[in-house]
Amino acid sequence: xxxxxxxxxxxxxxxxxxxxxxxxxxxxxxxxxxxxxxxxxxxxxxxxxxxxxxxxxxxxxxxxxxxxxxxxxxxxxxxxxxxxxxxxxxxxxxxxxxxxxxxxxxxxxxxxxxxxxxxxxxxxxxxxxxxxxxxxxxxxxxxxxxxxxxxxxxxxxxxxxxxxxxxxxxxxxxxxxxxxxxxxxxxxxxxxxxxxxxxxxxxxxxxxxxxxxxxxxxxxxxxxxxxxxxxxxxxxxxxxxxxxxxxxxxxxxxxxxxxxxxxxxxxxxxxxxxxxxxxxxxxxxxxxxxxxxxxxxxxxxxxxxxxxxxxxxxxxxxxxxxxxxxxxxxxxxxxxxxxxxxxxxxxxxxxxxxxxx
Length: 357
Hints:
The protein is α/β, with parallel strands linked by helices. It has nine helices and eight strands. It has an eight-stranded mixed sheet with strand order 7-6-5-4-2-3-1-8. α8 crosses α9. The longest helix is centred in the last third of the chain and has 54 residues. The N terminus is likely disordered.
């Protein structure tokens, strides 16, 4: 799965303020220019993931993203830079501070409201992304968001906005992702991230330009009526590359989940063995205390924790298992959305071949 090679830098100390009060976040409004900048940055370094900063303002529950800038590249090797910038965490912080200063000088919004991340086929949910988003929500505001742009161009994957749920943030603060902690905070693989409604906004001048633009196609461009069937795509029986790649990623995610399940099963077996030893020791100690009581001697301590003879294995973190489960569900949704058309064509051809048509 695609993941940044290093943790993201600490967010800037400049945070956007809700000018209307502490209204709950209900909408993410992104300027069209910001969307184009994110798309260009993501496609320029594809297939390497890229990240950048989002700037704007929170106005009465609407998070307005009015500007953005990418984190610096590593050099001229054609690859995306580590998320910390060319000079590491310190270099990334200096770069952000310099960018903020330049933006203030030209009177551009310089309030940090989140960050963006590129992805391929929905592969963005990993521990690095979650850790970075937690840092933004803790350092800046719980309304900080991450915009995910999927360069594969799949359905529902153009641009999406997320933030960590309150239950997951509480579990992260506790530093425990045990079964008890997750159950207490109501965290499942479906409640790690909270998806927020997103709206793309154009300036009034651009909207006026679009309405005044001619509707005639450019020279050499022919427009097909939506009522005209595209027989070439309907009769194409090749496997959709998008679907094929999703299945490959799905198999990899299932293998990772199996590995996490094996670790959990090993812990349960070790815990059962140690619990059996403890029960055996308690039975012997209680029998010995019964004999001592009959002979008038004081009983021995039955607290097995004080003996130092037993080491109860610590429950492993469920974080990676949760993230992999959420990623598997993402892949399954993408496969389900694309498989219908492909299977429909194949079943139709099979019926036609069976009838000799």
